[in-house]
Amino acid sequence: MTSAVPEELAYTASPEIFAGYVADAVRPTEPPGRLRSVRTARYEDHDITVTTVHEVIVDGVTVDVRLTVDDAGMLHSPGLPYQRFTSALDAVRALISAYPDEFGGGS
């Protein structure tokens, strides 16, 4: 087991470093458009695959908000990593509130 160096932990936890990490984590890796969320299960000798596709358009522009759905049906976005949503609209509203500069001035 390696021990943590307090100075390294303090540096990593600093707001500037952590903010950079979060910004990199939410940056899209694919072009804007449809992101598929695929869930699979096995039930009574049946293989189940459910694919959910969210296409999000804000002010007439397709945006990549990377919404995924878990097995419980809750939506997640890496832009708000500690929140879960029951509604895709609520998730997009929360993303607009959290990142207003990314969505322009609105209409």
Could you describe the 3D structure shown?
The structure is a single chain. The protein has 3 helices and 6 strands, in the order H-H-E-E-E-E-E-E-H. The longest helix is centred in the first third of the chain and has 12 residues, at 15-26. With 107 residues, it is α+β, with helices and mostly antiparallel strands. Helices cover 29% and strands 26% of the residues. The chain is flat. Strands 1-2 form a two-stranded antiparallel sheet. The protein starts with 5 loop residues before the first helix and ends in a 9-residue tail after the last helix. It has helices at residues 6-13, 15-26, 88-98, and strands at residues 35-43, 46-54, 56-58, 61-63, 68-69, 75-76. The mean pLDDT is 78.
From the structure above, extract its key features.
alpha+beta; two-stranded antiparallel sheet; 3 helices; single chain; 107 residues; two-stranded antiparallel ribbon
Question: What would the average pLDDT be, to the nearest integer?
Answer: 78
Rg from Cα: 18 Å
User: Biggest β-sheet, characterized?
Assistant: 2 strands, antiparallel
Q: Could you give the count of β-strands?
A: 6
N-C termini distance? 55 Å
User: Which percent range fits the helix content?
Assistant: 25-40%
